């Protein structure tokens, strides 16, 4: 029987299957976080006197055991269960009796699932940020190793100007670090604790929402109940926006790698184990992983779009539409982390093929450099130099490729990329996000300590 049932109002089986769907699979991932929310709620109820101290202690003891047993695989959420919340309450009541029925006091399933999801999101954001930094550092290692090696720069998919491998790898590393600004914004949005907002309008009990927030590692500043409830969907979309920025940059790097490893370019090789074969062509070594990064970036965009549109036009307060935000958020964030993992693993195996790269540095690629030489040495206006060089391209010759790279010394150019500063930035960001994750986990461990 559903926990909301009054006794004679059970849902038709077809309707139950449609409204529940595969939600139990996502609830399995949220279960440890739901137990943490319940632990904080039970402790708060006892502290404010809504539940007596004995019952509060029994609830906490039972919930700690259920958390340990879930992680050990001794129980799970099944398709026949209404949801993780009713499953936990049912197991707790079987274990400690009447006191278990008091756990739901002052809560709605709305703020309960919001709290569990928000805790999961905060944990996932820390992990995603850390993995983004690892990917950036893997690319940065390539940039430092080949910092001053010449490389052709492309515009419109045609060779355009001299560049360097340091610039190529370093630019992709910087892009990923820049993306953490959106991760930071999503982190700020997850900082508000929705526990106690009830079914969107608070409850008629003297709850201490600041205590609940503190116990769970949220900001102690508690917002308006309706604003907390209306944040469902918006916060999930922000989490996918943060991942979407990362995915977009991974997709661009993937496209570069796919182009630069073609037979026509042949600028890089990839390590054994990072390519796949063909079912018909014995000679093929396919960079499927980069093609799938691009495809899954598009898939992720579909999830972000679905999430963003799901809340358009909803009235304030809860609507069942919001149930479907859960799976989109969980699946979307997992997709980002999987792509980060494979790019991070592949990056150290990417090696340049110097002879192919140098062969691509044809004289025409230095046309702009020649125009600037005329500006610098003859005082010619750039427009005049541009026309002169453009009409005499056959006179161009290749200079010392390495000298060109090192002689470009303005900030951000090939001879002055600032890679050590970028490495320091990555280290600082790693320390920040690692500390956040450690504080969260320490806070939760304190809740789980009898």
Describe the fold and architecture.
- The chain is mainly alpha-helical and 450 residues long.
- The protein has three domains: 13-105, Orthogonal Bundle (Fumarase C, Chain B, domain 1); 110-359 and 419-445, Fumarase C, Chain A, domain 2; 363-397, no CATH class.
- The protein is built from 16 helices and four strands.
- It has helices spanning 13-20, 23-48, 53-71, 84-96, 109-145, 165-189, 209-216, 225-230, 234-260, 288-310, 323-346, 354-360, 367-378, 382-390, 401-407, 419-447, and strands spanning 150-155, 158-164, 268-269, 351-352.
- Strands 1-2 form a two-stranded antiparallel ribbon. The protein has a two-stranded antiparallel ribbon with strand order 3-4.
- Helix 2 packs across helix 7 and helix 5 (109-145) packs antiparallel against helix 16.
- The radius of gyration is 28 Å and the shape is elongated.
In short:
By secondary structure, the chain is mainly alpha-helical.
Instruction: Assess the beta-strand content as a share of residues.
Output: under 5%
The named CATH superfamily of the largest domain:
Fumarase/aspartase (Central domain)
User: What does the oligomeric state look like here?
Assistant: single chain
Distance between the termini: 32 Å
The Cα radius of gyration reads 28 Å
């Amino acid at each position: 029987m559903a926990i909301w049932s009054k006794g004679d109002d059970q849902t038709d089986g077809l309707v139950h299957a449609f409204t529940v769907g595969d939600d139990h699979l996502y609830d399995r991932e949220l279960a440890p976080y739901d137990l943490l929310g319940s632990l904080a709620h039970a402790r708060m109820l006892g502290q404010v006197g809504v539940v007596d101290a004995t019952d509060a202690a029994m609830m906490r003891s039972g919930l700690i055991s259920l958390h340990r047993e879930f992680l050990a695989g001794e129980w799970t959420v099944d398709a026949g269960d209404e949801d993780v919340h009713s499953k936990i309450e049912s197991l707790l009541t079987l274990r400690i009796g009447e006191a278990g029925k008091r756990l739901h006091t002052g809560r709605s399933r709305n703020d309960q699932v919001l709290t569990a999801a928000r805790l999961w999101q905060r944990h996932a954001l820390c992990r995603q940020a850390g993995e983004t930094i690892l990917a950036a550092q893997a690319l940065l290692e390539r940039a430092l190793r080949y910092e001053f090696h010449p490389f052709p720069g492309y515009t419109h998919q045609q060779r355009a100007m001299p560049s360097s491998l340091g610039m190529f790898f370093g630019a992709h590393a910087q892009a990923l670090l820049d993306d953490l600004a959106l991760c930071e914004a999503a982190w700020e949005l997850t900082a508000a604790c929705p526990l106690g907002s009830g079914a969107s309008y608070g409850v008629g009990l003297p709850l201490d929402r600041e205590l609940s927030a503190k116990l769970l590692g949220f900001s102690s500043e508690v917002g308006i109940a309706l604003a907390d409830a209306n944040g469902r969907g918006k916060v999930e979309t922000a989490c996918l926006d943060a991942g979407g920025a990362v995915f977009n940059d991974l997709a661009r790097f993937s496209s570069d790698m796919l182009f630069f490893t073609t037979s026509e370019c042949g600028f890089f090789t990839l390590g054994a184990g990072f390519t796949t074969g063909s079912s018909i062509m014995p000679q093929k070594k396919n960079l499927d992983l980069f093609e799938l990064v691009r495809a899954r970036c598009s898939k992720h965009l579909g999830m972000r779009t679905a999430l963003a549109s799901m809340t358009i036009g909803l009235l304030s307060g809860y609507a069942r539409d919001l149930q479907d935000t859960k799976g989109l958020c969980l699946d979307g964030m997992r997709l980002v982390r999987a792509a980060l993992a494979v790019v991070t693993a592949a990056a150290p195996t990417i090696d340049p093929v110097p002879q192919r790269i140098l062969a691509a540095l044809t004289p025409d690629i230095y046309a702009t450099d020649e125009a600037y030489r005329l500006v610098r040495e003859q005082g010619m206006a750039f427009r005049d130099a541009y026309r002169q060089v453009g009409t005499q391209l056959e006179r161009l010759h290749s200079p010392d490729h390495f000298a060109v790279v090192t002689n470009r010394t303005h900030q951000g150019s090939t001879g002055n990329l600032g890679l050590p500063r970028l490495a320091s930035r990555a280290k600082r960001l790693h320390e920040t996000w690692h500390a956040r994750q450690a504080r969260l986990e320490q806070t939760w461990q304190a809740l789980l300590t009898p």
